[in-house]
Description:
The complex is a heterodimer of chains A (242) and B (157).
Chain A lengths: L3 H19 L16 E6 L8 H10 L8 E8 L8 E3 L17 E8 L7 H5 L5 E3 L5 E3 L9 H5 L6 E2 L6 E2 L5 H4 L6 H5 L5 E5 L7 H7 L2 E2 L11 E4 L7
Chain B lengths: L7 H24 L13 H7 L8 H7 L1 H9 L7 H5 L3 H5 L11 H9 L14 H4 L23
Helix pairs in contact in B: 3-4
Amino acid sequence: MITRRRLLVLLPAAALAWEHVLAGTPESAPNYNRAEHWWGMLMDIGKCIGCGNCVRGCSAENNVPEGYFRTWVERYHVADWRQETPQVDSPNGGKNGFPPGTAVGGKNFFVPKLCNHCADSPCTQVCPVGATFDSPDGVVLIDEKYCLGCRYCIQACPYGCRFLHPTKHTAEKCTLCYHRITKGLTTACCENCPTGARQLVDLKNPADPIHEYMKTHSVQVLKPHLATGAKVFYHDLDGSVR
Amino acid sequence: MTKFKDAEHLIRLAGAFAIGIVVFLLLRSYFVPRSFGQYGHYRGDALTEIAAKPVSYAGHQTCEVCHGDVLEVKKAGKHAGVNCEACHGALAAHAADPASVVPKLPDTAVLCAQCHEQNIAKPKSFPQVVSKEHSGGVDCKICHQPHSPLLAPGGKK
């Protein structure tokens, strides 16, 4: 239990810690240097329980308009040998979870999705005004002051990760919580994931566990044949996932 | 020799071009943001603008500064890997001003089911219940301590 005395002692400590985060210089990331990072994400399909916490967390953190998603969760049902025709549902992007389901036989699993922050992103190549770009630290971002709302990038993204904001009329997408990762925090979806199915990874940080993980686990990206250089890595990904 | 006899119209043309180029350069310097091209074919300032957006989830590191006692309970149990705000919601406002922003306790009858309600697609090893049969809508925390769920509030299993 926190006593009144302890709370009084702790309040300034908390305020200091929080100021530290806001100043962008928490202990874990002093003086953020863009050249030292190369961000991506690791998804462990076997750990995803489809609770939708990531979707809700993302919406709250980034003010994502209702009915649109920067990240979402899909539920796959693959009948016994019908790899190429899976049944996929994602009611409200999985934001409110999933109905229990009644499918018999075959296999069922969840696949969380978000922008793949491709190293060779098809979406940034087509922008006519340079409003969307690959940041030096490997995040695909949108300059909403510069975006015309032409929707070209929305068509170009092979993963369907972009949408036109209904009131701002500019393209929107996952920023990999750029405002958080540059302050030494993890993304809102990773912070909210209760099972550790999602993990932010820094491919340029030699101490990041991702390097050991990649050596010892099979990982896959979505649509590898498109050679987009996707940086969202899936472990245990079924071949039926598109 | 009248080599440049008919050159006057060319000079006028060159003048028109020169004016055009000057006008173009002036307009360009006016319309293209200063930081455009700083890092690539985009406005460099956009990076700092996006990075400066406010944070809603304070992050578990911030929570643990004050709530170390909860961390100790959590560490010993099955919910060790579940971050504070995954259940308690976005609480950066509370972290910034703990005295005046008091978070509301979540309703465990709803909250726990979000993860633990049975679903065919959940990994088989993940603990799941059909809450209707398991508790019939009774608040989970009556029997389970949410920070270390195997323990009952009284301390027994």
